[in-house]
Amino acid sequence: MVALGDLATLFQLTVREDSAARAVTVSYKNQTIVLTPDQSLASLAGRLVSLPAPLTRQGQRWLVPVEFISRGLTLIYDARLDLRPASRLLIVGDIRVPRVTAQYEDTAGLMRVTLAITPKANAVVTQDQNRLLVRIDADALDAALAAPPQNGLVTSVHAVEPNTIQLDLGPRFSSFRSTTPTSAGASAQVTIELLPTAPDSSSTAPTPAPPPSVAASDLPVFGATARRSIRTIVIDAGHGGDDSGVKGAGGNVEKDLTLSVAKRVKVSIEGRLGIRVLLTREGDARMDADSRASIANNNKADLFISLHANGSPRPTTRGAIIYSLNLDRFGEETRRQSEGTGGDALPVYGGGTRDLSIVDWEMAQAPHVQDSVMFAGLVEQKLRTSANMKTTSAQKAILRALAGANMPAVLIEMGYLSNPDEEKVLAAADFQTGVAQALTEAVIAFRDQLGAQ
Fold this sequence. Notes:
Blueprint: E1 2-3, H1 4-11, E2 14-18, E3 23-28, E4 31-35, E5 41-44, E6 47-50, E7 56-58, E8 61-64, H2 68-71, E9 81-84, E10 89-92, E11 99-106, E12 111-118, E13 123-128, E14 131-136, E15 142-144, E16 154-160, E17 164-169, E18 173-178, E19 182-184, E20 187-196, E21 232-237, H3 254-273, E22 276-279, H4 289-298, E23 303-310, E24 320-325, H5 332-338, E25 344-347, E26 353-356, H6 369-385, E27 391-397, H7 400-403, E28 409-416, H8 420-427, H9 429-452
Parallel strand pairs: 11-15, 21-22, 21-23, 23-28, 24-27
Antiparallel strand pairs: 1-8, 2-3, 3-4, 4-5, 5-6, 7-8, 9-10, 11-12, 12-20, 13-14, 14-17, 16-17, 18-20, 19-20, 24-28, 25-26
Helix pairs in contact: 3-9, 6-9
């Protein structure tokens, strides 16, 4: 049972006792629920709602079953109310708090941990020293985690605020492998297999050979050749700080939209592909275009994706546009020289020399133009087919945000915040998740095409 006075304080309700009618009214913004002592019913505008127990008086307080929140109060309240009695949780508003449960399967060769996430959410598994961290795309977690078998592989499994499940590893742990979230009805399942250390066979094990040395001449030359694999991706959330970008009539701001989508893209790519993904900004910080490209260059990224939202004086304009860099203003000879492999031979620590190509900042993208065009086409295709977005064919433009990137790079205008209908779509969580999934599929297709070349 819960006191009506406590609910009134929490939810700004008005509670009145009508002695003549032997009833208690609970009101919120001109809507009223009528409760009668000794009756397991509540009335709202002639509609009867069943309760598991009647309204009861205890001293100076009126008490109602806690289910009154989910069966009655939700009918008049202007925010979503999600009552979870088993977890002793009441979730108010549109925040994402999935329930997470764990199952364990212990065999001779490995231990399998299956996390069920309801409703579905993306998750990424990483190792941090002697623990595994399962980061779930949520605002908080409703975790009901049984204790794991004590077999030396994992000692405990528990939630870490706000959205992470932590597996503390035991002395027998050697390595792990995990799956990307898969659908299981209304839930997503993440499976983690924990592998034990091999039995001690030091008396018979051969002495491992030392790793081969790498000659200085084998080191790659900066900007000399296009990358043929994808190990690191940088996602650039456009604008930030006092540079808000486009602002929609509904109050949505470009800098917030791009950061929200960037975080979802990071979770999706890391979860499905295990590729390292970095964000140019994690919060509301202003950055110039060159600094964003520098982050990608300094981290040796293999792909750079810059996210933006568009604006137009015409409120009916809509649709996504995908850009790659246009270098037509530079002559063919200049572009050819930027794509060359020549450079100065500099001494390398430990002996030998290494070629260093000096490339003009504005021409860093030159060796990757064709790959950028190919990736832009794949992004346009996946956004259109997988995310059901209205798109314009991939285009070339002179964009400072892409000029200094020394890897394939695209800029995506996801839609028009100046269009009221499209603004609502861009702000929706389902749309943003769809963009993240479409970009993940574009990365997969791009990686496959690179491998085929």
